[in-house]
Amino acid sequence: MTEACVGLGSNLDLPARRVVAAAARLAGWPGVSDLRCSRLYRTPPWGDADQPAFINAVAAFDYAGSPDSLLVALLAIEREAGRVRGGRRWGPRVLDLDLLLFGDEHIDSPTLSVPHPRLRDRAFVLLPMADVAPDLRLPDGTAVADAAAACDRSGIEVLESAQAAA
Which ranges carry the 7,8-dihydro-6-hydroxymethylpterin-pyrophosphokinase domain (predicted)? Predict the structure, then answer.
């Protein structure tokens, strides 16, 4: 079993419900156990600011499989939610699932980069990750809780737990 962290986000078509539903779908996926989901966060769009705010969360869980098989699962869950890839970079999304960490593995392939390359730059990932894995260490050795405490929280609002929104 490997501890994995996945970022969940949406800013289209009832985004809070989409994030909660994606977390539930992931919790039931083969090989996933002990899934813990953060509170929901309303966050300003990143990259392309001309779009609605996002709802973000992070799920941490144990996974019995490879990072590639987990990526296949994440892409399948996105497709089930109606995501069509190939749109505007950093644009609006019905659902976005990002593999942030997979144990202490470092992967740089054409299809997968783990740890997520912009993990340290994104408060919308660090804050929810601190909810579910505060003692987890980032690749530079910093505890997630410390990285979250140091990040810019401008425009970010805590909504509720993913469980309460269901």
Answer: 89-100
How far apart, in whole angstroms, are the C-alpha atoms of residue 137 and residue 166? Answer: 30
Q: Which CATH class is domain 2-165?
A: alpha beta
98 is catalytic: yes
């709802």: which residue's tokens? 55
Task: Judge whether 43 and 124 are in contact, CB under 8 Å.
Answer: yes
Active-site residue 85, yes or no? no
Establish whether 83 is a catalytic residue: yes
**Residue carrying structure tokens 């392309």:** 48
Would residue 96 show up in a list of annotated catalytic residues for this protein? yes
Q: Which residue in the list 18, 39, 42, 93 is annotated as catalytic?
A: 93
Q: Where are the domains of the chain?
A: 2-165
* Options 18, 39, 42, 96, the catalytic residue: 96
The one-letter amino acid at 149: A
Catalytic residue among 18, 39, 83, 122: 83
φ, ψ of residue 143 to 5 degrees: the values are -70, 140
| Residues 94-121 pLDDT 10s | 899 999 999 999 999 998 999 888 888 8
